[in-house]
Amino acid sequence: MTLGTLNHLSLTVSDRSKSEPFYNAILEFMGYQQVEKNDEFIMWWSKDVGAILIYAANPDSPNKLHDRYSPGLHHLAFNADSREQVDNLYNLILELGATILDPPAEYNQYAPGYYAVFFADPDGIKLELVHMPNLP
Asked: What is the pTM of this model?
């Protein structure tokens, strides 16, 4: 392991039955495999990245869409090796009927050649797939 690399990310979702098919499709596209599913959580694993887990929200918690401008997670960005991968994920997101926040395009205000798609999970958590050709 390398110091500072991600070991796992845990997300809380309002409805596992809606979020599981969404995350299965998105994460399997990116090379993750679902390795655990039990009453507490669902886990996907990538040998190069680590794990992503989803937990069901506490039923007594207010059920509202994620607000990325409140304290907490703003968004989660995944790397792509090419623009084609970004475009292919965009097509998958459309097939899933998920929310596209910003379609694939160059977002040079972030970095030269920054090409990304921005979308939301069923709870409104902002996700991104980005190709940055100038990464070291």
From this structure: 0.90
